[in-house]
Structure formats: C-alpha cells, structure tokens
Amino acid sequence: MSDAYAQAGVNIEAGNETVRRIKDKVKKTFSSHVLTGIGSFGALYDIKSALEPYHHPVLVQSIDGVGTKLSVARMMAKYDTVGMDIVNHCCNDILAMGARPLTFLDYVANEKLDPQVVEDIVAGMAESCSQNGVSLIGGETAEMPGTYAPGEHDIAGCITGVVEKDKIITGETIVPGDIVIGFASNGLHTNGYSLARKILFADGGLAVTDRPEGLSESLGLTLLKPHTNYVLPVMHMLDAGINIKGIAHITGGGFIDNIPRVLPENCNAEIQKSSWPVLSIFNILEKMGAVDQYTMYRTFNMGIGLVLVVSAGDEEKMRSSLSNFPQFPLYRLGKIVTGEQKVILTE
C-alpha cells in the first residue's frame, strides 16, 4: 500500500522523517500544563491548572495564515522566518483583546513534503513560542499533490489565550482627548504582499537579490523579516496596571480599516503621518508603484505594527514601564476626536 501511495505522490516516510526532525524542537516549548507530545491523536492541555490565577477567565482564540509572503520565501528558498510570522501574527491578534497566549496549533501543507523545509518552518514557530511563553502543543503536516502547485506550501495556525473577564480590552471606554500610541514595525509583517510582489517583481522586474537605494539589505531579506511580536511589552504594561483602552493590530486593511475596529461610534482617530519614521521599503513601494497615500495606509502598516489608545495622563507612566524594552520603539501618533468611527490622516 505504501508503494501505491508513493506513486500517487504521497511519501509516508518523508512524513515520519519530518516528525523526527521537529519533535525535540516542539517539546522545548511545552509548559507544565501540556500533557501529551507529538504523535497522539489530540493535544491534551491542563486548562484547570493554567487558569488557576484567574478569577473569571475568558478564552480568546484566533486563526490565520501567512498568506502570499510564502511566495517570497519560496523565491528565496528560505523558510526559517515564516513560521515565526504565523505565531507572532496570531499572538498580536488576541493581544488586541488583552489576552495572554497559552497554546498554538499549526498546519503546514505542501505539494511535496520536504522534511528540511518543514523543519525550518516549525523551528521558527518553536522559537517564537518559546520567546513568548506559548506552548506549541500540536500541528499537522499534509502532502497534497494536485491541490498545490509544485514547490508550493501553505501555513496556518490557531492560537488560544486567556484574559480576565473584567479586563477584556474592547475600546468602548475610548473618548475624545485620549491619545494614540504606536509600536514600530520592522517591515511589511504579513500584509500587503500581493501588492508588493506585483510592484517589485511582476511590474518592476526586480529580483529578491536586488537592493534598491535606501535598503540596508536585499529585497528578499527585507521582505522576509519576521512579524514583530508585541506580547512581552504589552503584557508588562497591563501587569503594571496601565489602563490600555484599545489595541489595534495593523494587519490587512492597514490604518484605515483596523483602527476603527476599536473605536466607539462617536470617535475618530486623528493620525499625524509625520509622527513616526516611515520605513524605506514603503517609500520604495509607493514610488515604484505610483500608489496613492490612501491605498498605502489601507494596505500596509507603514512602520507601525500595533496601535494603543490610552488617556493622555497615562502616557508617561506607560513609557516609564517600558524602560526595559528599548527594542520596541514607541511613537505618539495622534489623538481621539469626536467623529464617526474613522481614521483621519493628517500631515
């Protein structure tokens, strides 16, 4: 049967080899609450012990994929950062609700299973999980010839976190006069790659090895920088008692579509575009593609990966609490004004 299956395009032995390669890396992410390892039909996690510190715990869950950034990884034959991307993206999504991440489940699909590629992807996942206190409790690899084109991969992940019910961050307490603070990004993160690839490669004729003026490294390396994870600094602020009223993860939809998701109906966010340094890659994309400003701010993060809304009186306390996190630059982006749940961009 295995020979017939192999002739159909599925290599069982490659699957076994993949499990052998990633088993120890995954195990290093386990907390004391994880009760099973790789190989069982389901992942067991002792939720009672994990939630003991909480009075009224609420689970927060999210699922997402890496998207067409994988096309750049394939062009570079470099897969050690896209696993980090999916973990970090999912962490930030539930962080927007004030949740601390607990567990992560991954799904890696391939046209043809390459144990080395999957090992690189999962190693990136494991690294990000370990850095942010997340247990990589399970996952799945799938070899699907005929579904994916030769050389194609897909990566998705599901994260579960927890937040105290009375500390869920919803944005409902935001009022005019509050201020908008932004954490710097390090690049495109995981959004806007379809447009970026069209501008740079399809229309612009550039290669991943090219280095346009303004970049410190090649286009490929610039585009594959892993999505920044903001769990550690934001959790530190919350643990310090800072009242963060709203958090927006700047993903697909950019500033225009993401910030309104946390605004009350009577509020606008007035964002001053000159209040932070726009990364060179975005200037290159805007110029090469002749992209209008509205589209740029609706497609890309423009150098800001996470937006927080706090009372004006809490800004200094917030900045002081992050003295041990210099790797996470903060910028005051603007303020909340009376409006209609929109983002207003100013110079």
Written overview of the protein:
- The protein has helices at residues 2-7, 12-27, 47-50, 69-76, 82-95, 115-131, 193-203, 219-223, 231-239, 254-258, 280-289, 293-299, 315-321, and strands at residues 57-65, 100-110, 135-143, 153-164, 179-184, 246-249, 267-272, 304-310, 330-338, 343-346.
- The protein is α+β, with helices and mostly antiparallel strands and 347 residues long.
- The chain has 2 domains: 2-167, 60s Ribosomal Protein L30, Chain: A, CATH 3.30.1330.10; 179-346, PurM-like C-terminal domain (Phosphoribosyl-aminoimidazole Synthetase, Chain A, domain 2).
- It has a 6-stranded mixed beta sheet with strand order 6-8-5-9-7-10. Strands 1-4-2-3 form a 4-stranded mixed beta sheet, covered by helices on one side.
- The radius of gyration is 21 Å and the shape is globular.
Number of helices: 13
Question: How many domains?
Answer: 2
Shape category = globular
Distance between the termini: 66 Å
β-strand number: 10
- How big is the Rg? 21 Å
User: Largest sheet, if any?
Assistant: 6 strands, mixed
The poorly predicted ranges are: none
Question: Fraction of residues in helices?
Answer: 25-40%
Fraction of residues in β-strands:
15-25%
Set out the fold topology:
Layout: H1 2-7, H2 12-27, H3 47-50, E1 57-65, H4 69-76, H5 82-95, E2 100-110, H6 115-131, E3 135-143, E4 153-164, E5 179-184, H7 193-203, H8 219-223, H9 231-239, E6 246-249, H10 254-258, E7 267-272, H11 280-289, H12 293-299, E8 304-310, H13 315-321, E9 330-338, E10 343-346
Parallel strand pairs: 2-3, 7-10
Antiparallel strand pairs: 1-4, 2-4, 5-8, 5-9, 6-8, 7-9
